[in-house]
């Protein structure tokens, strides 16, 4: 025996069964196989019957078990068990969740399951355990399975090859559009909204009659989605886009009534798939956190008859404002339409016409196969009846042949030889009873034969004539429409644009205060009447112990404000976002509006209206000055995109701080004032424009520990003054000509004496005829006075008293109320006065 080894391994050797493959290729193919399995086998509906495999298997299992609309209800656990054991090899929870959803009238426009027991609620409550609920098919679900026993659809083996299941249901209704579908597959998802059955059937019939019709023609019948929970679709643009492209976004708004007399907002319908309990909880949270103001109470009065959520308003609350706040966050949802379905096993995004065409092709195939099945059955019956009629015409001879035969087989043979019967005919004849030989029975057979012949002719015509086949489809669709169609639940309302809170906030001029402890509030300017200079003012805010006022400024409630901090950060907000409170209120924490650090406070506020004013010629700049005497000019275009967390306005070094900001146009005269009473005037052009990251250039040379108090931007073409206010409440107006023009970075000239009476300078502003001044002390007193009551004097003077301060108090902040606001306020007061008769 040779001991030599073979040159190559034998077929049984393990090495012969090993194949070399690249791991990336194997992973790619495996992932594709998995993805397609999920797409076709679990997540996406078939365009023909609008069902995913799990829905189809549940309904077929109920059909096979006889749990139809005419039967009694059966335990859900029994239905789930049969479905899982015979057709759907997945967990029972997934099957039961699907069964429960098909029974929910708030999830399905036309529920396919008639449930008994707790199948969940619009509050998000889960269904009861499957052992406690019962179910059966709904009548409309039977339309999906109608004629399934007539070879109308293909069958395939179930997961263990014991049984067969339908690959698709005959579906006498266009279920994909009628009940919609949603699901997430691998790399794709579908979200088809439900529609009104009558509208979809009318569109289908229109497509049959007009194959070349446009999507717009079909939309004359299908107005839009029809959600089971009703509500309203805002505008039609989203619907049009969804029907034309297969994708779109719909704004769905709750149905509600505003009763201003009763002080209530009553919600009666919710957007599709909205969770009522969660919505109420979130509204309550917003009320608690102050995001929604004006709500006193919130009650859920819903019952079996429908939804009713009552929002009780506070006395004096603006119902329109509260409604608008609810719409912004709670009463409106976006439904993203993705009309993705399986077409011949391949996922496709379909427009409205394509969806209906695919369904029509399916119904053509179903009706054609059903007609062929019925034709074959009718021809078989006609063949039997023909044999019986021949036998009746020769009854004596037939009876004699049967009597003479030795057994049944001899009788069959004798009959076939005598009358040329087929095997099926002689089987039937020898099985006839004597009672069927009467003349009455003979007439019935003849009548039945005529009916069968008519049926054969009709079925043959359907199979040979496309228009007849389509006529059958239309007739059946009309019957279903007459049986199940109902009125629309979802209405359309005009799209007036996205709801904006600002649209319903009344415009008014306001005073905003901010404390060092970061408490902020706004108050109507009208609460502060003008006083003669030297007054004490009135309480403007109630401060916590050791807290002081850091800023005061005036704006309109609708204005956009650029808020600059001493650390060089800039924020943007609307004035109405600041909470409105009374004069004696402390305010609310500014942490939700401005992300300020512990040692950070507002240094200046610029109204965006000033940046866009028509009377300003040339480019716009934000001119900033720092405590240590630096100045920087930056174009407003650098501040277009301000984040909610703010952006950097300038670079600060050596613990320097931003002090003041003015809007300039490139040709203004700038006056920088210091705390020590010095001032320097130079042309704006001496400061070249710089970016946000720049530090700036030296504007004034400071001596003896002096610091910058502010900057005034003066338009020399208009009559205006430079106003200086000191910390002890004294101030003066001076003509711009009093300050001779110098070069930037000089020491400047004496502006006002800063002795023990006056204290240091705390503000320098540009004022004009008709302007008022808002002066606020550190303790919270605020005084409003016309600037023309403050004397006009030259430089290097003491000034006059502006605000009478209590001992230990000092001026914290000053802002100018422009004459436009003063004039508008006066006109408003005149209009409000009663006319004497």
How would you describe this protein?
With 837 residues, this protein is α+β, with helices and mostly antiparallel strands. The chain folds into four domains: 52-170, Topoisomerase II, domain 5 (Alpha-Beta Complex); 255-330, Gyrase A, domain 2; 362-484, Topoisomerase, domain 3 (Orthogonal Bundle); 505-831, Neuraminidase (6 Propeller), CATH 2.120.10.90. Helices cover 31% and strands 24% of the residues. The chain has a four-stranded mixed sheet with strand order 14-9-8-17. Strands 10-11-13-12 form a four-stranded antiparallel sheet, with helices on one face. The longest helix is centred in the middle third of the chain and has 42 residues, at 352-393. The relative contact order is 0.07.
Task: Summarize, please.
Helices cover 31% and strands 24% of the residues. The protein is of the alpha+beta class and 837 residues long.
Keywords:
837 residues, alpha+beta, Gyrase A, domain 2, Topoisomerase, domain 3, 4-stranded mixed β-sheet, elongated, disordered N terminus, disordered C terminus
């Amino acid at each position: 025996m040779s001991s030599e080894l073979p040159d190559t391994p034998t077929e049984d050797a393990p090495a012969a069964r090993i194949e070399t493959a690249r791991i990336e290729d194997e992973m790619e193919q495996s992932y594709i196989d998995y993805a397609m399995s999920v797409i076709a086998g679990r997540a996406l509906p078939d365009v023909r019957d609008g069902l995913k495999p799990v829905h189809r298997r549940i309904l077929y299992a109920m059909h096979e078990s006889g749990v139809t609309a005419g039967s009694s209800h059966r335990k859900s656990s029994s239905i789930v068990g049969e479905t899982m054991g015979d057709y759907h090899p997945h967990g029972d929870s997934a099957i039961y969740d699907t069964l429960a959803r098909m029974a929910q009238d708030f999830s399905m426009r036309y529920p396919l399951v008639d449930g008994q027991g707790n199948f969940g609620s619009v509050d998000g409550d889960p269904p009861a355990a499957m052992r406690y609920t019962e179910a059966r098919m709904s009548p409309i679900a039977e339309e999906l399975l109608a004629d399934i026993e007539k070879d109308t659809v293909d069958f395939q083996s179930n997961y263990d090859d014991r049984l067969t299941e339908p690959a698709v249901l005959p579906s006498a209704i266009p279920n994909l559009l009628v009940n919609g579908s949603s699901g997430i597959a691998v790399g794709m998802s579908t979200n088809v909204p439900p529609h009104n059955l009558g509208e979809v059937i009318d569109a289908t019939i229109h497509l049959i009659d007009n194959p070349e019709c446009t999507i717009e023609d079909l939309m004359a019948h299908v107005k839009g989605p029809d959600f089971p929970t009703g509500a309203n679709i805002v505008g039609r643009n989203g619907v049009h886009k969804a029907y034309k492209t297969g994708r779109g976004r719909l704004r769905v708004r709750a149905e509600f009534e505003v009763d201003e007399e009763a002080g209530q907002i009553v919600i009666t319908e919710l957007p599709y798939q909205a969770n009522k309990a969660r919505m109420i909880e979130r509204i309550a949270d917003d009320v608690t956190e102050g995001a929604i103001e004006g709500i006193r109470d919130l009650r859920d009065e819903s019952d079996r008859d429908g939804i009713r959520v009552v929002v009780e308003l506070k006395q004096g609350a603006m119902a329109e404002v509260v409604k608008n706040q609810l719409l912004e966050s709670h009463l409106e949802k976006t439904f993203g339409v993705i009309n993705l379905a399986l077409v011949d096993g391949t996922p496709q995004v379909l427009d409205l016409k394509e969806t209906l065409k695919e369904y029509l092709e399916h119904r053509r195939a179903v009706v054609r196969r059903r007609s062929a099945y019925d034709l074959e059955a009718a021809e078989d019956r006609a063949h039997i009846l023909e044999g019986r009629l021949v036998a009746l015409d020769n009854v004596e001879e037939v009876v004699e042949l049967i009597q003479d035969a030795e057994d049944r087989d001899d009788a069959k043979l004798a009959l076939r030889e005598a009358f040329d019967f087929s095997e099926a005919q002689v089987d039937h004849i020898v099985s006839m009873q004597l009672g069927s030989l009467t003349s009455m029975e003979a007439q019935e057979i003849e009548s039945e034969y005529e009916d069968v012949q008519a049926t054969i002719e009709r079925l043959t015509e359907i199979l040979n004539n496309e228009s007849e086949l389509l006529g059958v489809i239309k007739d059946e669709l009309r019957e279903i429409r007459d049986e199940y169609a109902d009125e629309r639940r979802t209405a359309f309302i005009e799209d007036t644009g996205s709801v904006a809170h600002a649209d319903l906030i009344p415009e008014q001029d306001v005073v905003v205060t901010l404390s060092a402890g970061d408490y902020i509030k706004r108050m109507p300017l009208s609460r502060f009447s003008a006083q003669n200079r030297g007054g004490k003012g009135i309480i403007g805010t109630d401060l916590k112990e050791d807290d002081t006022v850091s800023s005061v400024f005036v704006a309109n409630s609708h204005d956009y404000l650029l808020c600059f901090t001493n650390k060089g950060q800039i924020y943007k907000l609307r004035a109405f976002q600041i909470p409105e409170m009374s004069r004696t209120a402390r305010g609310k924490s500014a942490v939700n509006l401005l992300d300020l650090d512990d040692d950070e406070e507002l240094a200046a506020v610029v109204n965006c209206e000033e940046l866009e004013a028509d009377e300003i010629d040339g480019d716009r700049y934000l001119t900033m000055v720092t405590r240590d005497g630096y100045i920087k000019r930056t174009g407003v275009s650098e501040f277009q995109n301000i984040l909610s967390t703010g952006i950097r306005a300038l670079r600060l070094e050596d613990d320097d701080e931003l002090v003041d900001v003015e809007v300039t146009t490139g040709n203004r005269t700038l006056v920088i004032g210091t705390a020590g009473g010095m001032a320097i005037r130079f042309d704006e052009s001496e400061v070249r424009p710089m970016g946000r990251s720049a530090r700036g250039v030296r504007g004034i040379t400071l001596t003896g520990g002096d610091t910058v108090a502010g900057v005034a931007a003066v338009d020399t073409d208009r009559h205006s003054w430079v106003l200086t206010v000191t910390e002890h409440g004294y101030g003066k107006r001076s003509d711009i000509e009093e300050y001779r023009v110098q070069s930037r970075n000089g020491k400047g000239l004496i502006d006002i004496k800063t002795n023990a009476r006056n204290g240091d300078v705390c503000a320098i502003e540009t004022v004009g005829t008709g302007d008022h001044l808002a002066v606020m002390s550190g303790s919270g007193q605020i005084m409003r006075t016309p600037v023309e009551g403050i004397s006009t004097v030259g430089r290097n003077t003491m000034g006059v008293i502006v605000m009478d301060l209590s001992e230990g108090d000092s001026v914290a902040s000053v802002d100018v109320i422009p004459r436009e606001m003063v004039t508008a306020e006066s006109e408003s007061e005149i209009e409000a006065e009663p006319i004497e008769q």
